[in-house]
User: Fold these one by one.
Assistant:
Number 1:
Amino acid sequence: MLDDLTTAASSPTPWPAAYPQGYAVVDVETTGLARDDRIISAAVYRLDARGEVEDHWYTVVNPERDPGPVWIHGLTSDVLEGAPLFQDVAAEFATRLEGRVLVAHNAVFDWQMIAREYARARSEAPVKQRLCTIALSKELRLPLPNHKLESLAAHFGVVQRRAHHALDDARVLAEAFRPSLRAAAAGGVRLPLHECLPLTEWTDRPRTGQQAGPGGHRPAGWRPSRKRPACPYPNPGRYEPGERLKQGMRVAFSGDTSVERDLLEDRATEAGLHVAGSLSRLTSLLVTNDPDSGTSKVVKARQYGTPVVDEAAFGQLLGDVEPAPED
């Protein structure tokens, strides 16, 4: 496969006109995986239209909290204490992203962490689209044993020097992305590009339930509880396009939203809807801004015939939810 990709890279095949003009290959290390976790380091490799490296940039970031799994990323509180805050590097980070497609391995995670940090800084990241290299490897049908970055790197003969170090992970991904991009171009493969929605409304959840440790940090494993009360109304069935939502309807969400997901789910719950974490035949409605994304929820919605609306339409529907009938 590597020989085929090398041949594709050196062939005079015309470059697809629809392909982006530049890419920002990104990796962020974080204090954890939850919505309230923070970025502690970030790296960007800027690439031109054909995947050649233009420059790179790296910074550590003071997360103003416990650094989380130090045994993974190696960044201790002592190392991060004198680091800049995210708002101090936000402008420089933005210049690295502007006008480019964000490329990352499991890109939805990196994008969501970045979008939340910019929301905290009362700003927006200048990113319109993202490309996940996991999705691209699937489009290319690469014979990988799993979807780990180390497997993608090994496939293309890229040597990892410091796994889970943002700068080296970004370098490895940039080197693996270049032959992937050229193979896609040679094969006329449509790139799996997805829209990035910056957060327009966002809030930090108050942290209650545990005492802060030394320096004001929370214990590394602590997470806020987001268990919702059970919906008190029976499910009246599927949403009918053009009609009102009804209390008790089961609603699922997929993909990026401009309003932070917790807030959107809270509003749905307050309106008397049942917020579901998965999609089944009982789901009344799927809310997604990217109906062509191919996520498991979108695929199941197509299979089950579940109605789909975007975030803006859902917001309008929330303003006039039909009450459940009284017993």
Note: The beta strands are 22-30, 39-48, 53-60, 101-104, 129-132, 193-195, 250-254, 274-276, 285-288, 308-309.
Number 2:
Amino acid sequence: MTDSRTHPVAVSDGAEARRASRPSPRSFPWAVPPGATEEVIRAGRRRWYGGAVFALLWQVLELVAVWNDGRSFEAHVWSTLALFVLYAAYLFAPELMWRSGMRTRVIVLAGVAALAGLLLLVVGPLAVWTWLLVAALTGFVAERFWVAGVGILTVIVAQVVVAASLGWDGAVASGLLFAPVVTVSVGASMLFFGRQREAEDKLDVAQDELTRLAVVEERTRFSRDLHDVLGHSLTVVAMKSELAGRLVDVDPARAKAEIQDVERLSREALQGLRQAVSGYREADLEAELVSARAALTAAELEADLPADGTAAARDVRSLFAWVLREGVTNVLRHAAATRVRVTLTRTALTIEDDGAGAAGAGGTETGGAGAGRASLVAGVGGNGLRGLRERADAVGATVTTGTSDLGGFLLRVERKGRR
């Protein structure tokens, strides 16, 4: 048999674990990895156009500078048209990148860079400010760190060359000397986000693999428990049934005794099966404390949790485990907190945070749902406070919600009476 402290994993199948095989644009909002699904591409498209349009608003300063550079009206018109061609290429180049591999992405990026370079012939030295858009597009090749680095470095060198061609005084007077500085800032941000995305993708893969392994381990444990419970009993039942069949005509009294043994063994096996399933569904306080600490640490929240669950009475540990799971889930999803405190005694568990709080929440409920943010808990995982109420009623406990001393939400479950 296995350790009774083994934690049942709250995952019904392997769907969650398969996320590792699907690219995710979360950490790098506008970039979509090669081979992404249509769903991921749609999400990346929404993020890209939202950010790209905002970035183009800064190009209004470029248009103002072009129309005030002292050239003819015709030159201003041609410069404006050329700029809008580049802006269109900047906006729609990702459409050619999202479904393509690295080679195509680099070609598209080089094409946009060449178009930006040709602006020097139409717009003049002020075109170097549009090259910031090229630096931004390197985010689509950021999964190849050196490619993004070379692209950004090329833009910076080109800007320095243009500024040097104007001379020190001319570059300072026109402000072009600051273009490489701004590009360094943009490029560093791009490279940083690229590295962040790479690290988070690897972390996602690792977490998904751990989830998959946990699911496999839990299924193995449950299968092993069922085998331990039923294997021996069913083997004996089969043997005694066969023996009773042979004896029914030869020795009816002994056959009857064997059949009675079969009935007894069957009932024992059924009882063992019920106990195994009950143990499988029962939450484990020790495991939930470990899980809660890991989840809060991963979310970068300051967590003050008990070292273990030994302080709680045995008949309320399962209830406390469910309350801890739901309370921590609520904090992670809704609280916007920075600190969480869990207090455990023999008959009470209290979860407090310094987050959004529960406006209007409060009072004691015999498992009832509180107001404010407490109502959000009721929908978490299909359990929430409604599920906790039923579990609390079963052991004569009460659930209290309100505002904690930390300024956020408070969730407390306590069994009255026995100590």
Note: The chain is about 60% helix and 5% strand.
Number 3:
Amino acid sequence: MAKINNHLVIMAGGVGSRFWPMSTAEQPKQFIDVLGIGKSLLQLTVERFKTIVSAENIWVVTNKTYADTVAEQLPDMPQDHILCEPCRRNTAPCIAYVSWRIKSKDPKANIVISPSDHIVLDVAEFRRVVSDCLKFTADSDAIVTLGMKPTRPETGYGYIEANLSANSLRNKGIFRVDSFREKPDLETAKQYISKNNYFWNSGIFIWNVSTIVNAFRMYQPGISKIFEGLLPVYGTEKEQEEIDRLFPECENISVDYAIMEKADEIFVCPADFGWSDLGTWGSLQQQTKKDLYGNACIGEDINLFETHNCMIHTTQEKKVVIQGLDGYIVAENNNTLLICKLSEEQRIKQFAGDDK
């Protein structure tokens, strides 16, 4: 049963340019049925929080361009909980805005922040972990981040170094954070995973609303002043106008830099529930069921001959026949076809003409 003060905030403003041509600025990946199962990544995100947070306590922060898409895909959530950023300013201003907005409505709110484009394979374990963390933050001034147990030396994720000798007295599965580490090179990533106290930074945060608001007041007074000053207009027709005017003044800064690396009461909950940040075609291939030859196929009628280790996403084609490829991405969307080596996928922004 979802607790009355539990709130879910989904950050859904990204453009997902590394997933071109499936993901475009008009329709980014979080709104697409990436896995070919009839639900978008955004809808899957909401679904896995179903028993933890009730529909009226769901909030989505997105770009104005996508507000109608969010409303269409999530008809059960209150439409005034779709908060629109007038411009992109990274995660700290986004989180500050929604935190003060929730505080104006529910001063006892306990919040989980989640990106909109991740996948989770073991939903039951995910729900157990998140519920435990929400119990932990409900009556403490702790900030908890979920750390994923690494399965490989991944260079595409940031890492959290945990102090495994300093677990919390109230929850033996939650530990103090020693440091946050940037995305490493391969050698550093190998060193991290040879130790047992380094975890992938999932970007999923849990805290109560007083904790995060106080952290912004202390460590980001400029950002705090803007959203504190808007308390009289939250929930009124003036809100969007004032956000449009003041949001662009916020510093472009991530919540990791703005708060996490400065605050004292930072904890990590190591977890293992089949998590992936679907950032690239390669990460989708890793998470998709493969045939005997290592090919991951999403689409109706895909016929492969002498083809190995490919990621094929052709949901709009009636029939696809591929021969002789090894280690390629084949993806089409709206009259655009991409054929690209998986090993060269970091160049996709360039191929899409989006490498500025």
Note: The chain has a mean pLDDT of 90.
